[in-house]
Amino acid sequence: MIENGIGDRPLNIRHFAALAATVRHGSLTRAARAVNLTQPALTQAIAGLEASLGVTLFERSAQGMTATEPALLMAPRAEAAIDHIGSPRVTGTQLRALLALARAGSYAGAAEATGLSSASLHRAVADLQVALGQRLVDRRGQHVALTPTGQRRARGFGLAMAELRAGLAEVATWQGKAAGRIIVGAMPLSRARWLPEAISRFARAYPGVGVMVVEGSHGELSGPLRDGEIDLMLGALREGAEAEGLAGEAVFADMPVLVMRKGHPLEKVAEPGAELADYPWILPGSETPLRRHWQVMLRALGAEPPRVAIECGSVMTIRQLLLDSDSLTLLSRSQVSVELDAGVLTARDLASGFSRSIGITTRAGWRPTATQEAFVAMLRECGAGQS
């Protein structure tokens, strides 16, 4: 489970709804009517949020409520979060409970992740189902599974949390407290040089902002990205991102090379051809663009692609396997630069001309904070030197 980054801050959805309504209407009376609260309750909600954030959100006058800069920063995020939640009946506790259950797959796991008791989580989810009039979970033995409706709700709740995280970070930046955390999904091709260089530069410029790196494949990271658990994903871009609700930005091109151990029988062969199929291969899964390219490449050389006995996406594991066998693989030079410099592995350029677009994938319509935008700018700058 990826922590949401808001920490122990009390999360009262009505407080954020009160803020958004007051900014939108500029009047306590009209805002109270819009969110179905009494005027004293709305005033109390705004005061509670001001105390929690440590800022003044409105200047009170006879003319009405004038939003301050922190309120103007937070209000669009609050509006978006409320839209994603989709119901004024949802409480912060219920939101947290469903998200924890969705990520853990059991009440026991959710309790361990949140520190809440299983009984409290049971009650919160049950109350949420009653409030929404929808069945959100199905029990399956010791585990629970979200219904399709529950999955949609959980995704909306995750996106709401991402918006609130961003709003709180923007307010903190306005206060001069560079804070918060950027959560990066890192696919293999981003981990060797590109991402480390960007993080090092970012950490020097923004020492108060944390960076959390979540490693995985496209399949493992795209769901958490869509659900708001991670902020952006780095690595090889995929076709059809728009259909998945994602957007990709190419930063540099990578050309895979043939990699083998030093002293491999093919090391001295000027232009390896069909004999490539005579050796064992270590490659990522069959659904990856690199695996599909490998098949096309071998067929173009007049060989039928052999069975891949070892499927692996871990560069660390692949490197060790290469050292102990006559296996072959396709990797970026940057992924094995240390071994190439040490002379324990060797790489050969391929005549196929195949290249992969490496870049940044985000949720479609993602609105980065100023700090997130600064990190993305550093990724672009560092990526310019990777080609």
Protein architecture, described:
Helices cover 47% and strands 17% of the residues. It has 387 residues and is of the alpha/beta class. The protein has a five-stranded mixed beta sheet with strand order 6-5-7-14-8, with helices on both faces. Helix 1 packs across helix 3 and helix 4 runs antiparallel to helix 8. The longest helix has 27 residues. The protein is elongated and about 85 Å long.
Q: What is the count of DSSP helices, taking H or I runs of 4+ residues?
A: 15
Q: What is the radius of gyration?
A: 25 Å
The helix/strand order is HHHEEHHHHEEHEHHEHEEEEHEHEHEEH
Helix content: 40-55%
End-to-end gap:
34 Å
Largest sheet: 5 strands, mixed
Number of DSSP strand runs: 14
Q: Order of strands in the sheet with the most strands?
A: 6-5-7-14-8
Strand fraction equals: 15-25%
What is the global morphology? elongated
Q: Assign the structural class, choosing from mainly alpha, mainly beta, alpha/beta, alpha+beta, or little secondary structure.
A: alpha/beta
> How confident is the prediction overall: mean pLDDT?
90
pLDDT < 50 stretches: 1-5
